[in-house]
Amino acid sequence: MLSVGKAVKVSIYLSEGATRHGVSTYSSVLDYLFFRGVSGATVLKGVAGFGADHHIHSSSFVEIGDRLPLKIEFIETREKVNELLGKLEELVGSGLIELQETTIAKPAQRTKKEAMPVEHVRMAGKARLVRIYIDESERWGDKPLHESLLAALRANDLAGATVYRGILGYGADKKIHKDSPFHLAHDCSMMISVIDTEEKIQEVLPLFDKMLRQGFVVLSDVDVIKYSPRAAATQDVGGDQ
Question: Which of 78, 103, 113, 226 counts the most CB atoms within 10 A of its CB?
C-alpha cells in the first residue's frame, strides 16, 4: 500500500497490436504488475498518434485498427519500480518506458465494499514424498487396489493423498498401455502420491508390504511450503502433491 511521500510514476507506451508469445503485450504487462503486487495500474487507449514508423494511426467507426497507441500507467515506490524494471523492459520490447518522479499527497484507500485479503500463514519444512505405482487392474479384496490404498492412508491419518491415472505409458513388459475414450481398458498405470512427515511415512510403509502384490514405491526427501488459514497454523506441514 502506497503512503504519502516520494514515489515514481511509470508510463509504458505500446502499440495496441503488439504481442508477446501470442498474447497482447499490454495484457502481459498488466498481469505481471498485478501478480507482483503493484498498487494499481491503468491502460489508456489513444484515438490517434504515430510512432517510430512515422505513420499516422487513428480510430474511426469504419475501420478498427490494431496500431493505435496504448499507455499503461502506475505509481509505485522507487524500490518497487527498480525491482520491476528489468522484466518490464523485456516484456515491452520495442515499446517505450518513461519514469517520472512524483509525490503522493493522498494515497488511495480501500472502500468498505472491498473484501479484505484472507489472512494466512506460510509454513515451510522438510517432508517425505511417496509415489506408489501400480496397475489399474490390481485389486485388494473386493475393491480396486488404488481405492483400498487411499482408504488405508486416510485411516492412518496421512495429511493427504492423490490418485493419478496414466493415459499412456509402458512398464517392465515394454507393452504400451493406452487409455481409451470410454475408459473400457483397465490396464493403465496408476500412481498414488503422498506427502507427510518422515515419522508418518515410516508408520505406513508396512501397509505397502502387506497390500502390494506387484508395483513399486518411490521415496523422496522434499521441501514443503504450505499456505493455510491462520486457524490451521498449528497443524503439521504436509499435504497431497
Answer: 226
Grid cell, residue 26, equals 499490454
pTM: 0.57
pLDDT tens, position by position, 85-122: 999 999 999 889 999 999 999 887 766 665 566 667 77
3-state secondary structure of 240: coil
pLDDT in tens, 153-177: 999 999 889 999 888 777 666 677 6
Q: How many CA atoms are closer than 13 Å to the CA of 61, on its beta-carbon side?
A: 0
Convert the pLDDT of each residue in 217-229 to its tens digit: 999 999 998 887 7
The number of beta carbons lying within 10 Å of the beta carbon of residue 12 is 24
Tell me if 18 sits within 8 A of 95, measured CB to CB. yes
Q: Which residues make Cβ contacts (< 8 Å) with residue 80, sequence separation at least 6?
A: 37, 38
> In sequence order, what are the beta bridge partners of 90?
none
Rg (CA), the chain: 27
Q: Quick one: cell of 12?
A: 509504458
